[in-house]
Amino acid sequence: MRLPTIGTVGWILRGAAAGAAGTTALNVVTYLDMAVRGRPASSTPERTVERLAETAHLSVPGEGVTRASRLEGLGALTGLVAGVGVGGLLGLARATGFRAGTLLTTATVLVSTNGPMTVLRVTDPRTWSVVDWISDLVPHLAYAAVVTTTLDAFDRP
């Protein structure tokens, strides 16, 4: 029996699902790191949203705790959108026959997440310590491993 082929839209949807699974893995590793080391959450997602709003000449409404809560929520949402979106793009790449391994996927997600924050001057990876790099790299590696493994599983009959 011949299995039906997966079309482009099917691969994009599978990639988005893989990206959601990868984002969950990234969050688990990040929260474990915070729990084990007792470190606070990063403020870069909120600062990125704030800079994006400034660049677009928009304002995030509210004052004090209300505004801070909106920025925190929007920052978390941008992470979810990025994770699912990168997964969708990797699914699209699969539709063309390209298969990115875990290392290339890790590099892709590092650039796609840290790149905009660097351009917006929210962070500067050139100033990061070894611990900073490891704290950023390990969760993204977990994301990439889960996305790659999930996409590979979708590829099997």
How far apart lie the N and C ends? 11 Å
Largest sheet: none
Round the mean pLDDT to the nearest integer and report it. Answer: 94
Helix content: over 70%
What is the C-alpha radius of gyration, as a whole number of Å?
A: 17 Å
In DSSP terms, counting alpha (H) and pi (I) runs of 4 or more, how many helices?
5
| Low-pLDDT ranges | none
Shape: globular
Order of helices and strands: HHHHH
In terms of DSSP E residues, the strand content is under 5%
Can you put this structure into words, describing what you see?
The protein has helices at 8-37, 44-55, 64-95, 102-119, 130-154. The longest helix has 32 residues, at 64-95. The model has no long low-confidence stretch (mean pLDDT 94). Helix 1 (8-37) runs antiparallel to helix 5. The chain is built from 5 helices and no strands. The protein is globular, with a radius of gyration of 17 Å. It has 157 residues and is mainly α.
List the helices and strands and how they pair.
Elements: H1 8-37, H2 44-55, H3 64-95, H4 102-119, H5 130-154
Helix pairs in contact: 1-3, 1-5, 2-3, 3-4, 4-5
